[in-house]
Amino acid sequence: MSRVNGRTMKLKLPPRIKVLEALGAVADGRVKMLGPGRCEVLSSEGDRVYHVEISGRRVYSDDNGTVYRGYVGYPIIACLMAEGRLPTDPQLAEKLKTIPWRKLNEQYKKYEEVLRHIYTERAINRAEAERYIDAVLKQLAQMQLEYSPP
């Protein structure tokens, strides 16, 4: 999908790994609430700040997944988790702290390979993590979020 240039459009569900990336951002304390429905999310490497605005079903984020690929990017998911609108899993969150997401994505090139690495490296029960991801994605689907530029 091309850039969502200044128009409102329904966002697709993200790749499954983005749920864990969002939970990791929350666990790391990289989500800064600026007010109701507004937050900043610091990237895992600390070199980027994503701006998120949420108003009902309308959302905005300047991350690449949202802007260029048309799916609910991890900063939006992280903001919804920080607001309590999406579930978190404290035990899983603890195991997702300090993961260098961008570095791993560039190293492994495929999200499934990154997941395999993380599950092994962090001793994460894959079945439990997948159930959690399913629950978050189910709630995201019910939200029917739409990209809406500020």
UniProtKB/TrEMBL annotation:
Domain of life: Archaea
InterPro entries: UCP014422 (IPR016618)
Record-given protein name: Uncharacterized protein
Organism: Pyrobaculum islandicum (strain DSM 4184 / JCM 9189 / GEO3)
